[in-house]
Every structure is written in structure tokens, then in C-alpha cells.
Design goal:
By secondary structure, this protein is mainly alpha-helical. It has one domain. The chain has 14 helices and two strands; from the N terminus they run H-H-H-H-H-H-E-H-H-H-H-E-H-H-H-H. A two-stranded antiparallel sheet has the order 1-2. It is globular, with a radius of gyration of 20 Å.
């Protein structure tokens, strides 16, 4: 955190922007991994809450004239929490592939509201005009931060510290949550749902709570991302973006607490590397991801765990991770 805080003072502003992307995606992957790694539920629809985190405040600015970043961010988080409470209540009553299909279906329905313009219709002709101009997307200004209008030359640096504080808060929240009885019970439902029910754990309620918390963290990342890029598009709500977040989370490792963070940074770094080959960007990125996946089947966090274990002079143990289950790294 100290190194990250000093980064804007030592590097080119471009790399500050790249690091901001990595931190935002780290927040999103931390939220997603609460379901994927610790509850054992694969969601292909969490981009919906990422998009709602930005679209809600975007609508408030476009049709209500709101220019406060705090109001913009809070409105997106509240809206995502309300939508996730309803959709999560329905989704967590299924498991495995059925849960994944339901989250995918709801996300496709939500994305269609922005692509088709239905989300803009309540605002009349003004809403229709903005829909036609942006093809379902919205452009955002630089919002005021704590009531201060930050100039363009300083905005990226100041906003980097806002993102850094949000990242630190999200990481601490998730760490504490996973070490509370709630987190332990959540992992018990992942490892053996039947046994968890028999010992009295309310499985459905825990999964629903994890779904909502995950959506709130995802909305926080979406709101930050919308202000960072100053644009919101329907693609940020679609399932393909959800799949990218899943890939990043699994690339870092779902059983290690820091795995999603490592995966997010790795995806951003690999994307930057692949952009040096503009005509074959996706091919190069895909090959790099495949290479990493074959080299580290347990995720990039496995490498860090092995190095840490060697430094301490003992084999990797399950205590090195938040989770456990099959103990895939417990061998010397």
C-alpha cells in the first residue's frame, strides 16, 4: 500500500491510469470471488451490478444534474443492492449450472434494457435523444470530489488515491468477513452442502447474503470504473465482461484470498503486453492466458505460496490460504 501510494510521484501518468484499472478490477474480482471461491457458485451475471454501479449515477447526472461523486457512487451501490436482493433471492435457490444459467439470463435481460433503449424511455424525448446519441451509453464529466472541483491536470492523481482507499477498504472488509463465522459457514456450504444443512447452517440465507455483498462490492468497482473512463456502455453490463472477471479470478486462484487481486493485475498486465501486437491482440492475450493456466493450474497465487513456503522452510499448508476444501496445495 505504501508503494502504491508513492506511485503517482515516481511514474508516468499513463502508468497511474493502468494501475487504477488494475485496482478497480481487483475490487470487482474480490467481490466475485466471495461467490466463486468461497461459496462455490459460478456467476456469469455479476457484470450487471458492475454496470448498475455506473449507470444509476450516470442517469442522475444526465437527467437530474447531479455532479457529486459521492452521490453518484452511493446511488449505484444502493440500486445494485436492491436489484441483487431480488435476483439473488431467486438465483440461490438453485446450484451449480442452474445457478450459472439463471445469473446469465438475468444479465442478458438487463443488458437488453440498455441496448434496446427501454431504460431510457421513462425520461421521454430527452431520454430517447441521449439513447440515440450514445447507442445506449452515457458520457460522464469529472464529478466533484468532497465538494471540490478538481482540475483536469490533477484529477487522475487525486482519483487514483480515491480508488486506492476503496481497494484497501474492500480488501479489509472481505478479509474480516471471511474470518467471521459467516465466512466459515459459507465455505462449509461450498465443501459439503448436505452436511452443512444437517448441522444447522441456513445454506440458502448465507448464499443470498453472499450474493448481495458480492453485488455491492461489484457496484463499487463499477462506479469507480465509470468515473475513471468517463463513459458507460451496455458492454459493461453483458455476460462477456462477467466471463472476463471470472477468467481473471481463476487465473489468480480462487482459494487464496489474494488470488483475485493477483489475477486482476495479471490480466491488466497481459492486456498491456498484448496491445503491443494490435492486429492480433486477442490471439496473443488468449495464448498468454492459456500458457499461464497450464503452467500454474492452481492459479498464480500458487507460485507465491510455494515461494513463501520455501522461505519459511516448510511445505505448503492449507493455512496459507483462506478456504481449503480439497487442500490442492498441501503436498510438499
Amino acid at each position: 500500500m505504501v508503494l502504491l501510494a508513492c506511485m503517482p510521484l515516481a511514474v508516468n501518468p499513463y502508468y497511474v491510469i493502468v494501475m487504477s484499472y488494475a485496482l478497480v478490477f481487483s475490487i470487482a474480482c474480490l467481490g466475485l470471488n466471495l461467490l466463486l471461491g468461497h461459496a462455490g457458485l459460478l456467476s456469469l451475471g455479476h457484470a450487471a451490478y458492475f454496470g448498475l454501479g455506473a449507470y444509476t449515477g450516470g442517469f442522475l447526472f444526465t437527467f437530474g444534474g447531479v455532479t457529486s461523486f459521492e452521490v453518484y457512487l452511493a446511488s449505484g451501490i444502493v440500486c445494485a443492492a436492491l436489484v441483487a436482493s431480488v435476483l439473488g433471492f431467486l438465483c440461490v435457490r438453485t446450484t451449480r449450472i442452474f445457478f450459472t444459467i439463471l445469473t446469465l439470463a438475468f444479465t442478458q435481460m438487463l443488458q437488453a434494457l440498455f441496448i434496446g433503449g427501454a431504460a431510457f424511455r421513462p425520461f421521454g424525448k430527452t431520454g430517447k435523444g441521449f439513447f440515440l446519441i450514445g447507442n445506449g451509453g452515457l458520457y460522464l464529466p469529472r464529478f466533484t470530489l468532497a465538494g471540490v472541483d478538481v482540475g483536469p491536470e490533477r484529477f487522475i492523481t487525486v482519483f487514483f488515491y480515491v480508488i486506492l482507499v476503496a481497494f484497501a477498504g474492500s480488501a479489509v472488509l472481505m478479509w474480516r468477513l471471511l474470518h467471521l463465522p459467516f465466512g466459515l459457514a459459507l465455505r462449509a456450504t461450498r465443501d459439503n452442502e448436505t452436511r452443512a444443512r444437517f448441522i444447522g447452517i441456513p445454506v440458502t440465507r448465507h448464499r443470498w447474503a453472499a450474493f448481495v455483498i458480492s453485488a455491492v462490492v461489484m457496484a463499487l468497482a463499477g462506479g469507480l470504473f465509470g468515473q475513471l473512463v468517463r463513459q458507460i456502455t451496455p458492454q459493461q453490463v453483458g455476460w462477456f465482461f462477467s466471463a472476463e472477471l471470472v477468467v481473471a479470478t481463476m487465473l489468480g486462484g480462487t482459494r487464496a484470498f489474494g488470488g483475485p487481486i493477483i489475477g486482476a493485475f495479471a490480466i491488466v498486465a497481459l492486456t498491456e503486453l498484448a496491445l503491443r501486437f494490435p492486429l492480433s491482440h486477442h490471439f496473443v492475450l488468449g495464448m498468454l492466458v492459456i500458457g499461464v493456466a497450464f503452467t500454474c493450474p492452481g492459479g498464480l497465487s500458487e507460485i507465491g505460496a510455494r515461494v513463501w513456503a520455501r522461505l519459511r522452510g516448510r511445505p505448503i499448508a492449507v493455512e496459507d490460504f483462506v478456504g481449503g476444501g480439497e487442500r490442492p496445495w498441501s503436498r510438499p
